[in-house]
Design goal:
Blueprint (H helix, E strand, L loop, with lengths): L5 H9 L1 H7 L3 H10 L5 H8 L4 H11 L7 H10 L4 H7 L3 H5 L5 H4 L39 H4 L16 E7 L2 E8 L5 E7 L3 H14 L2 E7 L3 H12 L9 E7 L6 E3 L5 E3 H7 L13 E6 L27 E3 L26 E5 L8 E3 L3 E2 H13 L5 H13 L3 E2 L5 E2 L4 E4 L10
Parallel strand pairs: 1-4, 1-5, 5-8, 8-10
Antiparallel strand pairs: 2-3, 6-7, 9-11, 10-15, 11-12, 13-14
Helix pairs in contact: 2-5, 3-4, 3-6, 4-5, 6-7, 11-14, 14-15
Length: 434
Amino acid sequence: MYEMNVEDRGKLTSNRTFLVKNITKTMNVVDKLMEDGTITDDLKQDIEAKLTDNDKNRKLLDIIPRRGPKAFKAFLNALVKTDNAFSAEQLSPGAGAIYKVSMTSSEKGMVSPEEEKPQNQHSEIILPKKWPTEQDFVKDFIVKTCSHSEKGKLQSDNYYKMRSKPRGRVLMFNNFVAVAHKVEEEDGLWKEKLQMRDGTEKDEQSLRRLFEQLHFDVEVKKDRKVEQMRSDIAEEKAHRFHKDADCFILVFLSHGSTEGIYGTDGNVLTTDEVKSSLNNKNFGSMTNKPKLIFIQACCADTYDKGANVADNMAKDMSDARKSMSALNLNDPKLENVDEADSKVEKSPSDADMFIANATTQDNVSFRNTKFGSWFIQALVYIFRNYACQTDLLDMLTLVNKLVSEGRASDRDRNIAVAVSVFESTLRHKLHFFP
């Protein structure tokens, strides 16, 4: 059997770490490869014998380069047909469009109708009537790419520079086992109340796929105490990478309070502290560049019962998901310094920052234990469909709209609602130019 060509082999090698972490349902991929003879039954057994998914992926990636010059295309085809189009795109941009032509509806998995439209085509922005719906929590997705006319905005002074590859770094904190709060027992002692954040792994996976397709490097820190989060952020800021980057993104997936984000130790990292640590004064390598913060956590434990818009609101309860639990946060400060005739070029300390929260102050946010949180999944839905044609502020307005369509139930079985919120000191439009 002839060897795979050097270029294809190089793509597999340079993307190995990414593929090991991101290929899902490995044995389904193997079955597809067996159908066209790329992999034999003996090789399948070698892969199946591995104990973890990552080890199965490593073994598969060891085998593919030895299966001949056609194996690379067969591998791309198998990835697309097993809900791994995201990984196929990483190896070969455009692979999703090439190979999905022959896919049946059942092979596509949960693909939204919006994603069937051709790429590079400005689509009318039409949001789902209800949120969340299972159809829109897709297993895999491909971020729509910009048209030629949209990319022309790259040179405009009205837009932040977003041309480097990677664009920047994403630091994501995902506290699955988190302390919601501390409760006082009868003996006067305080005890930590631990809560599992089921569904947060879906948020992490979706965000990783989204930001990597938007050309960001993504690093995830899991189950961190407050001091560890402080240390991680300080270490991140010292990263030499940021000197040449165009943007930085910080994400928190955790429990929250009116003041900030809970660590796994029950302490709170305040939102004000996070914002201050990332401002133009304290994050020198990102001065004048956009710093984005996304927070999926509660802003306390109040359920928003909403305003009575129509008498038929109650009928929506039948569609409310009963497997929702809550979380979010936020709080800003402003400073003004007016120094008229300064000769030194300066930037406002708090300029070029953007922060979005899953819910408004004092209220809970909602997380589906199977599919992820309303806010994060709405953000992913909007970004993957419309980052190709509109800017950040417009997209977060759409996210607010989508989150507000959700209906859940509070502790007393009354209808509860939520709306996400954002604040911005950005001085230019921010377009991701996917």
